[in-house]
Amino acid sequence: MFKRATLVPAMAILAAFAAPAQSADLDNIIYAPMLPETQPVEIGSGWYLRGDLGYALDKKYKGTDIATVNPFSTTNFSGGGPTGFSEKDTPLNVSIGVGYQFTDYLRADANFGYYAGERKKYSGSGSCDGTLITTQDTYDGTGTLTGSTTTTSASSTPCPTSVSIKNTTYFGMIDGYFDLGTFRNITPYVGAGVGFAYTTRKDSASATCSGYTQASGSNPGTVTTQNFLCFGQASAADDPVDYVNYRNDSDQFSLAYSLSAGFAYQLTEQLKLDIGYKFTSAPNAKYSTFNPTTGFGEGEGIDFHEIRAGLRYELW
Question: Exposure string (b/e) for 80-99, b if CB count within 10 Å is 16 or more?
């Protein structure tokens, strides 16, 4: 009984001393201000890369000649230019670009494309003028030369001719598109663009005259020797003479525009298949032509009608 009575007052005294100490500790707590809430930021959202392959539906270089040069109209050459013809016209075009999706309906991209142009080759034979020297030597039965006569006359010989032209076009375009909404992962669109066309032309023509020596007859008897010398040759053994040696390389920048329509199909979250039609025109661009009668021509106006297929990869 005594021990319990003594313990209770002691516990009350300790509690009285502890209460002020706890109050002092609570007063020393520092409350930090609330930090602002952060929001995630999308880096690169809206940007995309693209690559396209096009197939030209028609002949692109088909304007009217605005100038002509005939390298085969030379003094010592006749017969006109070559008439044999071969053509290599590659219909495939390629382009790469980068674009940005501004809204769900508006986007634009910048593209650079190589439009494989046309190559044409002509071959044939013309007539090269020169001098024919004819010598007649007479031998008796012992093989002794008994007489010799020489005559000189104007003559001609066939000579091979060839022509080559190569037209190539590059386009740099900025195209804008209006997406018409998406239904079952398909998004149709229409577009238009403006930019530049860079065209290159490489033309060449040649007609080469080669001299010759030929003999007929026998010894004893009469031996006839003919030497044909092209104009510019000292002897038939000289190197062939170029009667026509024409070269012309030129390039040009001109304004271009485009119209397009198609649709995109969502393959994955970031990848789309783009299929459509595109018309690209450079009305003032020049290119080379050739006519066997009039020679080289300069056409103006290049149009491309093409079906295109490509991929658009969205950057996130």
Answer: bbbeeeeeeeebebebebeb
Cα separation of 166 and 145, whole Å? 58
Question: Three-class SS of residue 236?
Answer: coil
Element (H, E) at 281: strand 271-291
Q: Which domains are assigned to the chain?
A: 2-314 (2.40.160.20)
Segment 127-150, tens digit of pLDDT? 899 999 999 999 988 888 898 999
Distances (CA, A) of 141 to 219, 220, 222: 8, 5, 11
Half-sphere exposure in the Cβ direction for 237 (13 Å, CA): 0
Query: Where in 106-209 does DSSP place strands (E)?
Result: 106-139, 145-179, 186-209
Residue 156 in tokens: 């001609």
Nearest to 125 by CA among 297, 292, 289, 296: 292
- The count of C-alpha atoms lying within 13 angstroms of the C-alpha of 18, restricted to the half-sphere facing its C-beta, is 6
Average pLDDT over residues 243-272: 94
Query: Taking the CB of residue 299, how many other CB atoms lie within 10 A of it?
Result: 19
The neighbouring-strand residues paired with 259 are 192, 279
* Terminal C-alpha separation, the chain: 82
**By the 8 A CB rule, do 169 and 302 touch?**
yes
Structure tokens at 290: 């050739």
Contact 296, 69 (CB under 8 A): yes
Distances, alpha carbon 313 to alpha carbons 46, 83, 170, 231, 264, in Å: 10, 50, 23, 65, 12
In single-letter form, the type of residue at position 89 comes to D
* Digit-coded pLDDT (tens) for 261-305: 999 999 999 999 999 999 999 999 989 888 877 888 888 889 889
